[in-house]
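Supplementary notes for students who missed Thursday's class. We covered one full example, reproduced here. Read the sequence, then the structure, then the short commentary at the end.
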Amino acid sequence: MTPRTRPLLLAAALLATGLSPLALAAPAGAAAAKYPDDFNGDGYRDLAVGDRTATAGGRKEAGAVVVVWGTSKGLDFTKRTVVTQNSPGVEGAAESKDFFGTKVTTADVNKDGFADVVATAPGEVVGSSHRGTFTILWGSKTGLSGGSDYAIPGGSDSFAKDVAVGDFNADGKVDVVSVGGDYVWFLRGPFTKSGSRGKATNLDPVDGEDIRPALVVSGKVTKDGTADFAVIGEDWSAHQRVWFFRGGASGPVAPPKKYDLPLPGEADLSYAASATIADFDKNGYGDLAVGAARAGKGEAVHLLNGTATGFSSTVRSLTQDTAGVPGVRETGDDFGFDVSAGDTNGDGYPDLAVGAPNETLGSEFMRAGAVTLLRGGKSGLTGTNARQIDYTTAGFQRPADENDSWFGASVLLRDYNRDGRAELVAAAPEIGRLHLFPGTASGPAGTGSATLTVSGLGLGNRPYFGAALAD
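Structure (token representation):
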């Protein structure tokens, strides 16, 4: 990591892309942001997109984060800001293979009324090795304003492979959990713009053994009001597992509860590709959905229902062979590569978008990709009324180069226009496109959809981008 002093006053300089400049710091608000992704406090959700492959300052794969700004009519694809580690006030410097923006998540970390972006840089050099860091890009009244960089003193390999945020020790301050290598780090809040934070604790090993975490996801699982988190990965026997850490006044409860996923898989962390927590049956407990892609015909979404003490020991799986789910379960579709939860039809139940970026459409479009929408309800997620969204969806103006587009590699469900129905944002990274499908009474629709290219995002004239959507 190349250090750089934080300026006392940020210069009024436009980014090299010619898009919106980073804003100067604004006075703190009186209360936490209403939405965890409203970065300028105007009452509308914004979209943060990470691109680990972006070139910054001539440095290849240095990485970037793009914000598409929300309005009263929803996301405005013409209003965008690009942030790199070379942007004014952002600590650090863009270097080759930092992969800044590999994972992005959002929250009002310092509770000043403006949501912030937490972006990982797992390739960042700390000391003499690529140990990784994460950066908090601070929200303000006029946009993002600088960023503070965080690492573990002494370092640990792959520190920031994935991150999750929440108040896990019930002290009113936002904490961060970071996983990677053989580590699960719990970093206590408060996090400040000066770069300070609370104590860092390594929660691994658990049950006397080290684990290999791939993902971490946070949410309120129990009804005690404190945020919890789940770590997904494998133990040293290559068993694919979930470890549930319940939040509490003394911090995450250890040892955590552990759950075996149905298929042991290989010693390959890409087996657990994605995860999210949502209350799909509206019983007051958060449920865990794990997308298990790249596991041959083991590709599935595994569901663990929430209870008062954690997750149920019964794991239920949905695949493309489940009754009502479109398509056919095939090796290599990557069904479950990314998942996101949101209420798409306004019935009050969260639904689940499931990306399958290697799905072939008929015999014409090879590896074009697709997104399957699974409906929530009183019985939780099921295949009933599931539907598939892809380049053949009515009303969608598809690109000319659908083959090998990987549509659905990143997915996100959010209600950007506040009509009670979530829109679908889906990336096609192999051809450098981001698609927005508007919400309707029957779910996201092709009619009225919009497309933004990687060059339109301000990320250079190239076909590919490593899209990561902030869930």
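Commentary. Confidence is low (pLDDT under 50) at residues 1-30, 264-270. The longest strand covers residues 74-83. If anything here is unclear, bring it to office hours.
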